[in-house]
Design brief:
The protein has helices at 2-12, 33-46, 65-68, 99-104, 120-133, 148-155, 163-172, and strands at residues 20-25, 51-55, 84-88, 107-113, 138-144. It is of the alpha/beta class. It folds into two domains: 2-146, P-loop containing nucleotide triphosphate hydrolases (Rossmann fold, 3-Layer(aba) Sandwich), CATH 3.40.50.300; 147-180, no CATH class. It contains seven helices and five strands, in the order αβαβαβαβαβαα. The radius of gyration is 19 Å and the shape is globular. Strands 2-3-1-4-5 form a five-stranded parallel β-sheet, with helices on one face. 37% of the residues lie in helices and 17% in strands.
């Protein structure tokens, strides 16, 4: 359910008149970029969308001249026929991303672990990211590894819903006397 929401929200914000590029970015290591990228690719491929997933692990070297001077996604891949490009970069603490690649993307998806403390360096990385992008691209934040009860305190009760879960949820939200 939540995965479909994320996929649909991203699809809704992708342009129809230019390359659809989603950059997967994080401020720290092991925040879940590979997992999220794989899930997005699997879902969209299952509904017939031609997806090209490009990762810094397999498809380009962050220490190469081609990456450091890249002006476009075309410098990182030879696949020109994809409907959506999902590009996974190393964490911002490891390597800078060329501003032209950030601006070319339709969406820059920053993935952060919900159970990790947000530091001043994380704030600095995000500030630099927004300054590099400007108004040309959108930035979305995806919290990864959040506990279900914490998410429900923001979103409301998530499926599966039964009478017992509904009662426990109302009790935890001090809503036993609330009416629907």
């Amino acid at each position: 359910m939540l995965q479909n929401y994320i996929n649909n929200e991203l699809l809704r914000n992708l342009p129809s008149d230019q390359k659809r590029i989603i950059n997967l970015i994080s401020t720290g290591n092991k925040d879940g970029k590979s997992y999220i990228g794989q899930q997005l690719e699997e879902y969209w491929t299952s509904i017939g969308v031609n997806v090209s997933r490009i990762t810094w692990h397999n498809d380009f070297s962050i220490n190469s001249k081609e990456y450091l001077l890249a002006q476009s996604i075309n410098n990182l891949t030879t696949d020109q026929n994809a409907d959506i490009y999902i590009v996974e970069y190393p964490s911002l603490s490891e390597c800078a991303i060329p501003p032209s690649l950030l601006r070319e993307a339709s969406i820059n998806l920053v993935i952060a672990k919900a159970n990790r403390t947000w530091k001043f360096t994380d704030q600095a990385f995000i500030r630099n990211l927004t300054n590099s992008i400007g108004e040309e691209s959108k930035i979305f934040l995806l919290l990864n590894t959040a506990q279900k009860d914490v998410v429900e305190s923001f979103t409301g009760l998530l499926p599966p819903i039964n009478k017992l879960r509904k009662l426990i949820y109302k009790y935890s939200q001090f809503g036993l006397t609330a009416s629907e």
